[in-house]
Amino acid sequence: MNKDYIAPWVRVIILLSSTIVISGLSYLFTGSIIPRDSQDALIFQNALLLIVIGIALLEKYYTKPADSMVNSLMGVITLMGVYDVAPKVFWWAMFSYLIFVFFLSITTTAIYSFEVQNPKLIRLAELCYQPAIVLGQARVLYSVVFLYAVFSFKGVQSLQTVMLVLFWGIFVVIWPLRLPQLLSRLSFQKTRRQPVGHVMRTDWPNIVRVTIQSSTKWTNESIKIFQQVDGKQSLILPLFYEPQGAELVGTGLVVKEYKDKLEGLTDGFMYDADQSASVADAEISEALGGGSKSKLVGFIVEKSTIAEVKFEIWDPKVCWEGLLVWCEIGGKRVYYQITSGSTEEEVFQSNRHGFQLGSATQLGIMDEKQGFLKHPWVPRMNTPVFAENESFGEGIDISQDNDFVYGNLPGTELKVAGPFLKNMDHHTAILGVTGSGKTELAFDLIRHSVDKGLKVLSIDLTARFEARLSDLAPKNLSLSAENVTELNKKLFDVETGTYGAGAEKKALEGFAKKIREDVQKAIQEFLTTVDDNNRIGIITLEEISNSKATLFITEMYLTCLLNYAKDNIGKAPKVLIVVDEAHTVMPEPSTMGLGDYDSRGLVGKIAQIALQGRKYGVGLLVVAQRTATVSKSILTQCNTVISFNCFDDTSLNFLSNVYGSSYVSIIPNLPQLHAIVFGKGIRSQRPLIIQIPFDPKKAETPS
Fold first, then answer.
1. Assigned domain for 40 exists
2. What is the pTM of this model?
């Protein structure tokens, strides 16, 4: 039961009895129920009567700025009628007070009514709001006018003054003493339920807007009953409330019809339900069209766009970054992933409405053949947003033959796959800090490629590939230790030789020609051998300390590979080149200290060879920690980008051009084995946050 509730009949009785008393006092002291003298009219009609009407009838719950504006304007008009007979000093003091209240209230009302967005004007309205509703409420403003008139025109010790002030004091004090509330509870209608709000309108889908009292409890646990105009009663689940202008408006969900009909309710009003009334999560979801398996997360709010929606979060416990959510647009289920969250606050009088706001980026409509397809429009305001349960995706297969499965959408069983092999020659980049999971994903892609018949050539600078891929019998195509030592020596001689280093360069060219023939022979043998034990070739560069030697050898192998592919178009097998620690063999010259023209030339040649390979069935898989240290000529040509956790600004700026700003803000906070994937190798027209399932076998495998 609402302890602040005052029954309508109590208000009517107080109003009628007070009006009768005022009329009696007027007849007693002026000889007429309606005084003709301007002084008496100011006391009885324009002050005392308005106090009664304002408190008992007009301002039942709280005073609005518009009420204060009307009260002060009425006070100014009535005060002007006694200007000639009133003491001028006190008259101007009263007039100044009324004008001050009028300008406070009209400023607040104008800014709220026209929904002005200027922050300075909004701040001005907030400053004016409280003094306007306090100084302008009927009990205060008309009491000041009444006391001014009584003491100015009737004197301090007259009988009229004593009786008028006594009546005024009794009438004003019964409200803070809560006597009307007491009468309401003791009345013969004490079994009648007390309304907590009035329904303004009903919105789609099954949403009601309710003008509620400031003392009303409007939370998920306080179930309400709505008496409809047709006599039916429905259970209402309070969702959230917010100030709208000078009113407090609650938003609720019509869940289901209430079978145990209650008597004595008024059509169009909202009431507290019995404690036994409850609503299950499945009922909430079904009432909003989400089905029994989905869970309500929130409702779409303003500033949503086609690419990103904003929603007020109804149940914070089920929300987290990367969560798959959906809402209905035009009869179609459109999926989104939560990319950020924030807190907001609105203030209404002394109440603060704090809430959480979620942002989710569109994935699109799910197509079992093509993955996620973009939807071309934005959801309606108040559209419910749902989350899928953990079993979602079981039995749904959006992959096709030969697709590679990257992982799951977090919190679901829905697989994220894509035609990696089909788009292998459009190049792929895997980025992320050490320990984030990028190398493990590279190993999975290598195994997938080999399983589907591709050749894989791996440039290994960490000496991990041969051990980790030992079950696939990789073939070591590296230069012999003697040749590497000799190459290092000759490169050093060129760098330290006399001016021009002509003799040293000639010696280097002769040696390079010899080992190039060996490399060409090894590459040709690797590509032409068709047995299953000759699918992976490894070039180990771990022991090479000279960065120019690393570039020199890499360029040599790639040139031989590309030349063979050119000369044998249609015959040569497709080859995937895997480059781990790509900053070493494909560096960005300006960041790696490669100041000499020879090194810059080698880097440019490596990039050119790698990119030309697309024409001849040669693809590139780049694995790197930071984009700042990898050749941008290569990275910008990678049409599939997979990003694990990383922090540096250069990488994030590069990835913002790939994914968009909403996803880039997530990357520094990605948990281990979580990544953002996007490009030709993914069956989705939008970036996706994925989770790669933990494999204990990999964890036990030595690096």
1. yes
2. 0.67
